[in-house]
């Protein structure tokens, strides 16, 4: 059988653009496949700028602790494409992925369709054939015209914090971007809303009012906060004193609250909430690397990995580093040319001693190491370049023994690190 990688390579050639937001091609291919999106288990649809993946992981941990079988769809992948499609708790097998992709390729008949669209169709097809209790769907980009937004009647929608990102596709202002994210709202379907900037909240509330969609809004209908070594969650059902999230960073308090609010809306309680914050796993989100060639190269240094890549992501990483034990911190960073690089780096300038820039291997939209270093220098970071991540780690380990090294920036760099580090 031909490998899924070979099929995926073919699918990349079906459209001249990587991103071309529209639902027309999705409706066409799904119709050719018999509309599998109408036969998937009840969907929880998640949009937002930051925190979608972490929130989804926490919701999944909570549902699975209740014995529920959960499908999950996320993007992009890190080490292998199979990560995008989880069937009833397990990553899709190579045989099932290859067969499903080939079936979608045949149904498409060579017509123009983006890679994300046809692979999303493949996910719906796979979800429709495996029994489960819930389907978690993470939006790829935006919401209104995202390929996942063909679900007509989800059980629940979720909007994580919205900030400025992907302005070339979603609009220049926070209100414009929020309008696209709020496109996942459906008539009379409840929505869990993370705490938002007032401008974003207003857009969501106006859209929800037009659709009679009940909202459960953070800091109004529910609240999550840290008190000492506890996460306190409170809503009109009462208060829960829970452990802190096992996913590190102050921003995970909000993500945990959003996940718990979703679980509460679905009828689950304290046991599932506790599992959500203690059992969730989500790689490349302030993940401490523990083994592999990079750990050997790091010597006495701590080695961490994070894929936050926009200004809000930079703020979250900076807050996480500030809350950690005091130790000199040095960054290794690779970025794409589609991102606000200086905006991402500006919050990090106050918590890191240096940044070593690398070019992301095999990524056509990568910034060169020199360009990334120039952006870092422009916001006050001491910047250098290295030929690759391993070289950067080795140099820092030799020059800064016992320091904290954070590999950060693009998720594509994070994926390459995870693959190369085993």
TrEMBL record:
It catalyses: (6R)-5,10-methylenetetrahydrofolyl-(gamma-L-Glu)(n) + L-glutamate + ATP = (6R)-5,10-methylenetetrahydrofolyl-(gamma-L-Glu)(n+1) + ADP + phosphate + H(+); 7,8-dihydropteroate + L-glutamate + ATP = 7,8-dihydrofolate + ADP + phosphate + H(+); 10-formyltetrahydrofolyl-(gamma-L-Glu)(n) + L-glutamate + ATP = 10-formyltetrahydrofolyl-(gamma-L-Glu)(n+1) + ADP + phosphate + H(+); (6S)-5,6,7,8-tetrahydrofolyl-(gamma-L-Glu)(n) + L-glutamate + ATP = (6S)-5,6,7,8-tetrahydrofolyl-(gamma-L-Glu)(n+1) + ADP + phosphate + H(+). Keywords: ATP-binding, Folate biosynthesis, Ligase, Magnesium, Metal-binding, Nucleotide-binding. It comes from the Bacteria. It is an enzyme of class 6 (ligase). The keyword Magnesium applies. Pathway: Cofactor biosynthesis; tetrahydrofolate biosynthesis; 7,8-dihydrofolate from 2-amino-4-hydroxy-6-hydroxymethyl-7,8-dihydropteridine diphosphate and 4-aminobenzoate: step 2/2; Cofactor biosynthesis; tetrahydrofolylpolyglutamate biosynthesis. Residues 298-410 form the Mur ligase C-terminal domain. Its EC number is 6.3.2.12, 6.3.2.17. Residues 46-262 form the Mur ligase central domain. GO terms for cellular component: cytoplasm. Its cofactor is Mg(2+). Belongs to the folylpolyglutamate synthase family. This is Dihydrofolate synthase/folylpolyglutamate synthase. It comes from Paracoccus kondratievae. The gene is folC.
